[in-house]
Amino acid sequence: MEKTYNPQTTESKIYQFWKKGGWFKPQIKKGRKPFVITLPPPNVTGELHLGHAMYCLEDLMIRYHRMLGEPTLWLPGFDHASIAVEYLVSKQLRKEGQSKKTIGREEFLKKAEEFAEKSRKYIKSQLISLGLSLDWSKEAYTIDRQRSQAVKEAFQKLYQKGLIYQGKRIINWCPKCQTALSDLENDYQEEEGQLYYMKYGPFVLATTRPETKFGDTAVAVHPQDKRYQKWIGKEFTYQSLIGPKKMKVVADEAVDPQFGTGVVKVTPGHDLADFEIGQRHHLKIINVIDQQGKLTKAAGKFAGLTVNQARKAVVTELQKKGEIVKIEKITHAVGHCQRCGTTTEPEVSQQWFVKTKELAEPAIEAVKSGQIKIIPKRFEKVYLHWLENIKDWCISRQLWWGHPIPIKGEADTLDTWFSSGLWPFSTLGWPKKTADFKNFFPNNVRETAYDILFFWVAREIMLSLFLTGKIPYEIVYLHGLIRDQHGQKMSKTAGNVLDPLEITKKYGTDALRMALIVGNAPGNDLSLSEEKVKAYRNFANKIWNASRFILSYEEKAKKIVYTSHPDDLWIIGETKKIIKQITNHLNRYRFDLAAEEIYHFFWHTFCDQYLEMSKKRRSETQQTLLQVLATSLKLLHPFMPFLTEQIWQLAKDQEFFKEKALIIAQWPKTLKIN
Fold first, then answer.
1. Among 66, 318, 489, 617, which is most buried by a count of CB atoms within 10 Å?
2. What is the mean pLDDT of the segment spanning 358-372?
3. DSSP 79-148
């Protein structure tokens, strides 16, 4: 063995050794239930970020179950990411002085396809560099021929059952990307704003959006608010900035009596809550903001102004009329397009929707009955609350890149989440009943971040139960978000982003993997710093040095049938205990605790204590040292695969190291005492 472990020269060779051995492919065994995970498909938008390095949790599970002798399938794939790719390609065109319209649909789609394919190839190389033991022979893509067929089949089945319809409803609209957005694509950010208290006929009410007053069709109060009982159901006329206007007073429980004065203006065309009030009270819808984010003719002399320009102009005129009572500074959540950062506008629009109430019922029951377990359990309440209050899902997008809506004459594309909602079974050949579908569906685990529990996981469960009659998987494992060492969100603006590929080049992939697993309790955010990764690089060096010390011993080890020396009995007992502890933690999905236990066992129990004890009795302890080392490497392998496999291959002529490769070695159950 070399004096120091060099991950840079080792990792690619080890990965090719595994791939050549065919060990990423599942070996079907009669009577053995497969263990299956479909990789949450990364978007083909350039490169991986640190969050994608969390895939190491799935690799850990796959390697563990492979060592248990189960047929394991970890199926890789990619998401075509319609809005993200369209935004990035459009951005590049603008730099070149062009646009979607100037080059036309056909040429734009060609450029989008080229961009996506280039990204896909690069991301694949990054996934390989992270040591992920994916079965690349089954690689899938949400927009390839097979997945496109699955999308058409799913749409038709939902449509035939009356669960897909076209209608006018309120959606999130991005004035820059010129498309409807899903809730996930609409990022709410805390911003400083102003709450304007203004006279409104006989009332004073508070609003953050005085510019939308031209689209108001009622004012609302809470039914039990004693201050306004005499007004409920009545009408009043007031002099607006563009002439006299008649307004109705409605009572609705959605109104918070504690907000402002307890009276709110109702703008059904530009606010979700107002739209729902409007539906309940049969109010007229007036579109006062167009798709470019400018005021319409309904705003009279303010038409053509942007939202921000109109807000200033309206407030100025109201102040002149003495109708602004006061202005308060507030902090409130404002929606922004996830891709371009533009403030989104709630807007009533003709779109395609999925009726989700009917789909939600079996998805609720699947979790309530325990068919699907969510880890950590506290997220079950979050999941159930969302599904019990679910809104219809807007699935149409005014984009060119994506799955066309399979209706004749329809120019829109489908929300990306529609195709990714089919992922657990479309990847296995559905709607055809292929051998893969029969062998590997349902999957075992969906591992993902908690922030897409509703937007992806819930939809996978709903669509799977409707289209296949089966749950998509048995376990939903939710990890948290990665933050910096101070607990702050990582961003390029803050300058605290860690590039996973740069980190692995510097410290090795195994060090990054351990840093991501230790302290990473299910559902909790993880603080990560370069210092933490460096600490596990030191641990990798410790494993290498200890292995080198043991394996470089040249004197032939004595064959001892049974050793009664207390030191040897002690380390054998400790090793048996750690096998049980690690196995128990892994079976309970407490990967963080398993990682901590094996770290402390190897460094402190085995190296600091027993290795030092053994130096006085080296010859007679060699066999025990070899056995404990081999067992430790097996326990460490799911966490630190490259380093442990390299040591295993260098020790192959030694006793206890006879298995061809560590990746397919048998998971330890106990120890032999020779």
1. 66
2. 98
3. B--HHHHHHHHHHHHHHTT--HHHHHHHHHHHHHHHHHHHHHHHHHHHHHHTT----GGG-EETTSHHHH
**CA 186 to centroid of chain Cα atoms:** 15
- CB environment 508-540: b (16+ within 10 A), e (fewer): bbbbbbbbbbbebebbebbbbeeebbebbbebb
User: How many CB atoms sit inside 10 A of residue 564's CB?
Assistant: 7
Domains along the sequence of the chain with CATH = 186-337 (3.90.740.10)
CB 402 within 8 A of CB 134: no
The string of pLDDT tens digits covering residues 114-161 is 999 999 999 999 999 999 999 999 999 999 999 999 999 999 999 999
What's the DSSP call for residue 469? S
State both tokens at 555: 């004197």
What type of residue sits at position 393? Answer: W
User: Across all residues in the chain, what is the average pLDDT?
Assistant: 94
CA 444 – CA 463 distance, rounded (Å): 17
pLDDT digits over 506-552, tens only?
999 999 999 999 999 999 999 999 999 999 999 999 999 999 999 99
Write down the residue that tokens 């400790």 correspond to: 574
Q: Which residues, including other chains, have CB under 8 Å from residue 106's CB and lie 6 or more apart? A: none
